[in-house]
Amino acid sequence: MKRKTLRLYLLVISLALLGTATGLVLSAINSDLISYFVSPTQVTKEPVEPGRTVRLGGLVEVDSVGKLDDGATHRFRVTDLSNSVEVLYRGVLPDLFREGQGVVVEGSFNDNGRFVAAEVLAKHDENYLPAEVVKALKESGRWQEGAAATAINGSEGVDP
Amino acid sequence: MIIEIGHFALVLALVLALAQAILPLVGAQRGIRSWMLLAKPAAIGQFAFLLVAFLALVHAFVVSDFSVVIVYLNSHSSMPLLYKISGTWGNHEGSLLLWVTILAFFGALVAVFGENLPPRLKARTLSVQAMISIAFILFTLFTSNPFARISPAPFEGEELNPLLQDPGLAFHPPMLYIGYVGFSIAFSFAVAALIEGKVDAAWARWVRPWTLLSWTSLTGGIALGAHWAYYELGWGGWWFWDPVENASFMPWLMGTALLHSAIVVEKRDALKAWTLLLAILTFGCSLLGTFLVRSGVITSVHAFAQDPERGVFILAILGVALGGALTLFAWRAPVLKPGGMFAPVSREAALMLNNLFITTLTFVVLLGTLLPLIFDVLGLQDISVGPPYYKWTFIPISLPLILLAAVGPLLGWKRGDLSGALQRLWGAGILGVAGIVVAAWIDFGSEVMAALGIGVGLWLLAGTFVEWAERVRLFRTEFTESWRRMRHLPRAAYGMTLAHAGLAIAIIGMTASAAWKEEVVRQMRPGETIEIGGFTYRLEEVRGVRGPNYIAEQADFTVLKDGEFYTRLYPERRQYMVQPMPTTEAAIESHFFGDLYAVIGESDGAGAWTVRIYEEPLVPWIWTGAIVMVLGGFVSMSDRRYRVGAPSRQPAAQPAKA
User: Which residues lie on this side of the membrane: Cytoplasmic (chain A) (predicted)?
Assistant: First the structure.
């Protein structure tokens, strides 16, 4: 076998692999496989179709945390200080979940317009606000440098 | 005072690194022997000073010196000693100092154990290593000084984040860093070889043990991290395809590819330029990972507090290191002599194919990790990329790779016999197909990928055994002869067998866990029971307990199997005293087919608690697989070929086709 032929083989295989990978990635982008990040204001303006997986980010509204009658489903509102969305979550809330604290929930809207979370994500650091939450607050015009920290610290000790 | 000594030692290490970067390189170019020889003492000295700096910081944590900013922010006098020590790297500044210290440690190791290296290659390698040191020491000093003080010194510290007060923090980051940073050696060797314009089998033999050491540590570090995320609630389980997790996975993938291609350079003197490129890109992935973790450009579950300014600095390091090395590669690679030829069906071709698959997988992970950033830059919607994306893109490409991993080792060098290899794998094939059928039957075909995953896992496990049995001619000849062969098989061969078997075991565990996990969430009062996965959980009571720096509610579960007592579980919900923040400590009990996993949530104030119980099928197989892989790495490292000064010898037992 000649060196050139060998190179040709390798080139063909590489291109085929790369092509497959790119195809898979592009089809993933075009379908429901990546979830879009939405803010409470966005979903209030343009509702997301029920059943589509999205990530919703904002602050946990103060005095909004409660439970449904079954005792295991949490109910709270996620707010960007302009609009807020009701979220239902069945499970044990992560350790850093607190009123006034930034939160990102992944899930979808049900037919009644309520957001059913499959996952509530917690950060390692309680002082760290997810970039998406900052963005949501900025878009709702409620972001002030340093203000978010006060919002969080101000509500410390409020235990749901 | 000790803190100032540490700070000063860090600066001295920088000065030594400067000398180590310049003099040996110039010496090697001009043939000034004394300048080249400077590399060794400089590398050892640089490491010694960094060690002093690091130990000074550890000392500050141990004695709770709150006049040091990061001690004040991350420690408390009431914390147990283990967490005071591990708190040293439980923050950006301290972990960066650990990073640099390990970098210098590897340099010193090469300096000490590299006696048989050609002096020029050694001088150049250590010089490149010192350049990386310079960049990261400057980064530490200018953006992240761990020795900064506050005055007046606070009386008490703010305590380490309670989530990080875990044995996981003590072992996961150091092991991960040894892996990450160790690839710098392969990088330095590659750049040095490009300057020399020469790569041969000897070069591959020198690089391989370092790559193996890094790969083994990285494997262990990732597994430890996965285990930690598994028992910590809210971190998304043992693998969440989070950017920070991917940041460690990409170098692991590329390092795996590098290990395989270096074999071809060593045995057959082929794929030389490609191997150099891989060595450069592997460390590039390590740097990219460092950037992703510390810059905050991408949202992650595992992120520390971040600072964009630091991100720019690391990006600059990444750009210079990768840009410089790749430019050098483009300029010098054509100088390399072309290597040996091989047929499209051969061991070399199989290893090449392995490399192509792995780099494609890395590309897919890289795209998934950067997509949110790309969308953001293009002004499109904000997106997040999670497990569904990887299930769709990563798994289909990795399946053929796993199939190949059983076939490749059975092919001969230069020209292999594919149908012969497949004939010997008939048993593995039957086992794999049986696995697919059984798995599909258990879950009624609802998870096609899961059935395939179990199938390829079994195929690889059986195929790996077949390859080993072929080598020792098990049952083909008298047992005494097989036994003789078993004893004389090179350690590297055993290393491969273990690593492949470990991967197979881990794949089976990961697949089962991802596909067939079950959970129950309920409000529970003492005396009530939950049934899941064939076990009955009875909540006996919830009581208050007290730890060194926390108080906790502890649940007491009795677990029954078929009405018989099985075990007791004690999950806790802790409240730390300094930082008003509850943490959940899951209780886990492993058995052969999976884990019992219980979590206690908050009380409703009227005698009931939210309880979450999981049935985690085959999760212990993931950890077992990882341990076997790590073991394989160590066994391979102990092969006498790679031992310093050991004369090379022909392996006693060659595979049948060689």
Answer: 1-7
Beta carbons of B392 and A28 less than 8 Å apart? yes
Interface membership of B606 toward A (CB under 8 Å): no
**Which residue of chain A comes nearest to B344, CA vs CA?**
A6
The tally of domains found in chain B comes to 4
Phi and psi torsions of B613, nearest 5°? -125, 130
List the single residue in A17, A91, A93 with the smallest CB-CB distance to B356.
A17
CB contact burial B410-440 (16+ within 10 A = b; e otherwise): bbbbbbbbeeebeebbeebbebbeebbeebb
Residue B651 is assigned to a structural domain of this protein: no
Q: Are residues B359 and B293 both part of a single domain?
A: yes
Other C-beta atoms closer than 10 Å to the C-beta of B321 total 22
Contact state of A122 with B301 under an 8 Å Cβ cutoff: yes
Question: Which H or E element spans position B194?
Answer: helix B167-196
Tokens for A5? 């032929």
Q: What angle do CA A143, A145, A147 make, to 5 degrees?
A: 70
The contacts of residue B561 (CB under 8 Å, 6+ apart) are B534, B535, B536
**Is B650 contained in some domain?**
no
CB contact under 8 A, B610 and A131: no
Q: Which two tokens stand for residue B584?
A: 């959940």
Domain of residue B67: give its range.
1-160
Number of neighbouring beta carbons within 10 Å of residue B505: 24
For B19-67, the pLDDT digits (tens) are 999 999 999 999 999 999 999 999 999 999 999 999 999 999 999 999 9
Residue B381 touches chain A, beta carbons under 8 Å: yes
Q: Is residue B27 within 8 Å of residue B38, measured between CB atoms?
A: yes
Provide the percentage of residues in chain B whose pLDDT is more than 70: 95
Beta bridge partners of A90: A73
- B652 assigned to some structural domain: no
State whether residue B605 sits within 8 Å of chain A by CB: no
In this structure, the answer to whether residues B244 and B381 fall within a common structural domain is yes
Number of other CB atoms surrounding residue B482 within 10 Å: 17
Query: What pLDDT score does A128 carry?
Result: 53
Whether residue B436 is predicted with pLDDT greater than 70 in this model: the reply is yes
Q: CB distance A10–B356 less than 8 Å?
A: yes
B119 and B198 in a common domain: no
Residue A159, pLDDT above cutoff 80 = no
A89 marked among binding-site residues:
no
Residue B139 within any structural domain of the chain:
yes
CA distance, residue B634 to nearest chain A CA (Å) = 32
pLDDT reported for residue B301: 60
Quote ipTM for the complex. 0.83
Q: How far is A159 from chain B (nearest CA, A)?
A: 9
Q: Say yes or no: B141 and B191 in one domain.
A: no
DSSP B602: E
pLDDT tens for B277-321 read 999 999 999 999 888 888 767 666 665 555 667 888 889 999 999
Whether residues B296 and B422 fall in one domain: no
CB-based contact A36:A42 (threshold 8 Å): no
Tell me: the pLDDT tens digits for B191-230? 999 999 888 888 998 899 999 999 999 999 999 999 998 9
Helices A3-30 and B347-377 sit at what angle, rounded to 10 degrees?
Answer: 40
Out of B163, B383, B582, closest to residue A124 by CB? B163
Query: Cβ B299–A131 below 8 Å, yes or no?
Result: yes
Q: Quick check: B237 contacting A, CB < 8 Å? A: no
Q: Sign of torsion, CA B252 B254 B257 B262?
A: negative
The per-residue pLDDT for range B512-552, each reduced to its tens digit, is: 998 888 888 888 999 999 999 889 999 999 999 998 888 99
Cis omega before residue B152 (within 30°)?
A: yes
